[in-house]
Specification:
One of its GO terms (molecular function) is monooxygenase activity. By secondary structure, the chain is α+β, with helices and mostly antiparallel strands. The protein has 19 helices and twelve strands. It is 49% helix and 11% strand. The protein binds protoporphyrin IX containing FE. Protoporphyrin IX containing FE binds at residues 86-87, 98, 248-249, 252-253, 256-257, 260, 314-315, 318, 377-379, 383, 385-387, 390-391.
Length: 436
């Protein structure tokens, strides 16, 4: 039997489905999923094949490196920022990097960062006033960036004086969904202010990384930050490779965490019963300030985070390309095409989730027989997020620190979303904070 070309929503000449996609990428994909196992659509010139069956998603994720690889478009878009960092590298280089970096992300090692997680969350909350309305997303971005930079470089580095916070902001600005079409289509040299600022930010961060690296290479101090771990690993890494890894952490490791915290706190503000149960757990487990060992016992808090990432997965889709023509059932997906693994769609699929739109952390305490790849906020297979344990620990400790002392109240029950590289709220998320 000859393989069929998958169907999908009707395309217009030239623009394909871009006009439908810009109105709401996630809703577009949810509707498109009704076309079946493999759905073909075209957005901003990219012919895409979206997979909707967990077993197909599993096949792609587990075989990344063999049958599939990261799509060229991602590598191209990130090349000047992260070069051949872990996120984009492939083959033998990726294998060696992953092996070298693994120990820095073991749970025992992430313990070193627990104090900074609690400390930076407390510092942020210390600046709030009872009854004040804060921009939650901005606050969480600052907290997670401080935590990440301390984990990468150590708490003794003068990060603010080195202008690194502003530079990271400029670096990440291109990921904003409204800027995505321009980022994808405009050449690097185009005279567009945010692209120029991004270039300057990369140069600035790079020079800071090299500067700190030089002092590390000449010191024999025993340190536990990520940069020092990479320098101490058996795998010899030259300065350029360490620069690429550091830039990768900056891109991959804080915006995603900030979004997880923002969505978790929004959902808690709308679900007082869940917030009450979570606080009961905090009061039972934590005496004084939260610590690493406490986080291991915060099982309901972890369910809250998991459920928030189900409803609002920061990585709302993953992308791959097949190395040769491949088939899923009867459907042909051609070599090199863009394969979309839509986290958002699977996480809200009625076949796997009862009442999928409802925020119900208790579902994680129940025995379910859903397929493993109906839920993959951190990806899966060999390219699974290396920072998963760090991010989970961070989410639990930051939530614990904030919720022990503060109540979060939000007037609006909806968050307006826009989806670029990550799933982001449109604008900030206003939240009124009350001291408990
Ligand atoms: C809630 C927070 C986070 C989420 C939702 C998240 C999500 C993801 C996902 C979905 C992938 C797989 C991408 C793909 O297969 O195409 C990934 C990979 C990666 N993440 Fe995370 N991430 C988070 C936090 C972090 C942190 C804290 C770090 C590091 C400090 C990090 C570093 C990385 C790196 C380096 C990769 C590439 C791994 C490889 O290809 O071997 N992430 N992340």
């Amino acid at each position: 039997m000859t393989a069929k070309t998958p169907s999908g929503p009707r395309k217009l000449p030239i623009i394909g489905n871009t006009h439908q996609w810009v109105k709401g990428p996630c809703e577009f994909k949810e509707r498109a999923a009704e076309y079946g196992r493999v759905v073909n659509y075209k957005v901003i010139g990219m012919d895409s094949y979206m997979l909707t069956e967990p077993e197909d998603i599993e096949r792609v994720l587990m075989n990344t490196g063999d049958e599939f690889h990261k799509h060229e478009q991602i590598k191209e878009q990130l090349r000047d920022a992260i070069g051949t960092g872990l996120f984009t590298s492939e083959g033998e280089l990726w294998e060696r990097q992953r092996e070298a970096m693994k120990p820095a992300f073991y749970l025992e090692h992430t313990k070193n960062y627990a104090q900074s997680m609690v400390g930076r969350a407390s510092d942020a909350a210390d600046c709030w006033h009872d009854g004040e309305t804060i921009g939650l997303r901005r606050e969480m971005q600052q907290v997670t960036l401080e935590i990440l930079l301390e984990a990468m470089l150590g708490a003794d580095i003068d990060i603010a004086d080195r202008g690194m916070y502003d530079a990271v902001d400029d670096l990440l600005a291109v990921l904003e969904p409204s800027k995505q079409p321009i980022t994808m289509l405009a050449p690097d040299w185009a005279p567009i202010p945010f692209l120029r600022r991004r270039k300057e930010a990369i140069e600035h961060l790079e020079s800071q990384v090299y500067d700190i690296l030089e002092s590390r290479r000449t010191s024999d101090e025993d340190r536990s930050d990520l940069m020092s771990m990479l320098l101490a690993s058996d795998e010899e890494m030259d300065d350029e490779q360490i620069r690429d890894e550091m830039m990768t952490f900056l891109l991959a490791g804080h915006e995603t965490s900030a979004l997880t915290l923002t969505y978790s706190l929004h959902l808690l503000s709308q679900n007082p019963d869940v917030a009450r149960r979570l606080r009961e757990e905090l009061d039972e487990v934590i005496d004084g300030k939260p610590e690493f060992e406490d986080a291991l016992s915060l099982s309901y808090t972890e369910s809250v985070v998991k459920e928030a990432m189900r409803l609002y997965p920061p990585a709302h889709e993953l992308r791959r390309a097949p190395k040769t023509d491949v088939t899923f059932g009867d459907y042909l997906v051609p070599e090199g095409s863009l394969v979309i693994l839509p986290t958002w769609v699977l996480h809200r699929d009625e076949r796997f989730w009862d009442d999928p739109e409802t925020f119900r952390p208790e579902r994680w305490e129940e025995q379910g027989d859903r397929p493993e790849f109906a839920y993959f906020p951190f990806g899966g297979g060999p390219r699974r997020c290396i920072g998963q344990q760090l991010a989970t620990l961070e989410a639990k400790l930051v939530l614990a620190t904030l919720l022990k002392d503060w109540e979060f109240e939000r007037e609006y029950d909806e968050i307006e979303l826009s989806a670029g590289q990550t799933l982001q709220p449109k604008g900030d998320v206003e939240m009124t904070v009350h001291r408990r």
